Amino acid sequence: MAGLLEKIEEMAGQAPAKVKRSDTLDSLEEIRLEYLGRKGLLTSILHGLKDAPADQRPLIGKQANLLKNKLSGLIDQRRRELEQQRSRRELDSGRIDVTLPGSRPWTGSIHPLNQVLERINEIFFGMGFALAEGPEIEDEFHNFDALNTPEDHPARAEQDTMYLEGGMLLRSHTSPVQIRHMQANRPPVRVIAPGRVFRRDTPDATHSPVFHQVEGLYVDENVTFGDLRYTLEQFAAQMFGAGASLRFRPSFFPFTEPSAEVDISCIFCRGKGCRVCKQVGWIELLGCGMVDPNVFDSVGYDSERYTGFAFGMGIDRICMTFNGVNDIRLFLESDVAFLSQF
After folding, report:
1. Which of 140, 154, 201, 236 has the smallest number of CB atoms closer than 10 Å to its CB?
2. Domain housing 19
3. Is the dihedral of CA 239, 240, 246, 250 positive or negative?
């Protein structure tokens, strides 16, 4: 009996100190196994009670269980302390130093073509134009016939237009949207029609088989070319700045008469001549004109009563000019390094 009690007293003097000195969860677990494990020192004493005299077993068992409970409590307390210390270290290692310069993660941006389109829409909405949309797959009537385009016109050739089965085609401009809108609405009409268009162009720095247009249409009584010019001048001033000036050159389009090509003074050199404008001081902006009476006849408008103007511009070309981009293909290649600049 004396031997077992001495062992218990010896452990009672050593074990608590070991528990307090343990500095890791692993070392604490080793101490627990040393004393309280299945083959631990206290466990061995409790298993050896059967060999002790019967009248002495209660005292030995009592002292052993008291030490067991004490050590279990100390070990649990120390384990919580070590876990708290570990948590603090993890927090300290991940703590943000607010004195360091910040770094903004890249979250994407609006595509440059959409940025230009949103600005164009905003300007024309402010002038009272509404938005009109239509299908990208069209028939020849809306894409050509109703727009006064004769059957022998080069634009109707297969080398220019993407034809599909059943007499359908991929629209080559957004003018069919104007035809569909006039068929469904009576004058006055004032709309813009943005969207993708398709042509059989060989891709290069300035040409693409898929590009984007915005076309405008205004039909009412007594609409004149002066109204067209004023509208486009207001657009140019808001889009490119008050110093932008326009130049109208006579041209021809099947669906407008008279027709004009419109150039804008180079926004980079202000007309002095530079690499962007090829030293001429002007950049081609859009085509426009007064709606041909034959177009009104095709949609059931009274061409003796109503007049109107139409215009169309390429969003891609404007975006290239506005941002100094020299290759139209960059807008369609989804290159993050390129798009992240906008």
Report:
1. 154
2. 2-93
3. negative
On whether the CB atoms of residues 207 and 201 are closer than 8 A, the answer is: yes
Domains held by the chain: number: 2
* Residue 249, domain CATH: 3.30.930.10
**What is the rounded CA–CA span in Å between residue 114 and residue 134?**
18
Q: Which of 93, 127, 147 is the last residue of a domain?
A: 93
Name the residue with tokens 């808001």.
238
* Cβ count within 10 A of residue 87: 10
Check whether residue 120 and residue 69 sit in a common domain: no
Q: Contact at 8 Å (CB) between 259 and 147?
A: no
Of 93, 128, 150, the residue that ends a domain is 93
- Please say whether the beta carbons of 201 and 209 come within 8 A: yes
State which amino acid sits at residue 339: L
CB atoms within 10 A of CB 183: 13
Q: How many residues does the chain have?
A: 342
Residue whose tokens read 């196994």:
33
Write down the pLDDT at residue 1: 47
Residue 225 has what pLDDT? 96
| Exposure string over 214-226, b if 16+ CB within 10 A, otherwise e | bbbbbbeeebeee
- Whether the bond into 187 is cis, omega within 30 of 0: no
Residue 197, pLDDT score: 94
- Tokens matching residue 241: 């700045």
Q: Are residues 53 and 176 in the same domain?
A: no
**Same-domain status, 142 and 275:** yes
**In this structure, are 85 and 168 located in the same domain?**
no
Provide the pLDDT for residue 122: 95
Residue environment code for 285-310, b if the CB has 16+ CB neighbours within 10 A, otherwise e: bbbbbbbbbebbebbebeeeebbbbb
Amino acid at 203: P
Residues 49 and 144 in one domain: no
- Is 320 found in the same domain as 190? yes
pLDDT beneath 50, residues of the chain: 1
Provide the residue type at 236 as one letter: A
| Pairing mode, strands 137-139 and 256-265 | unpaired
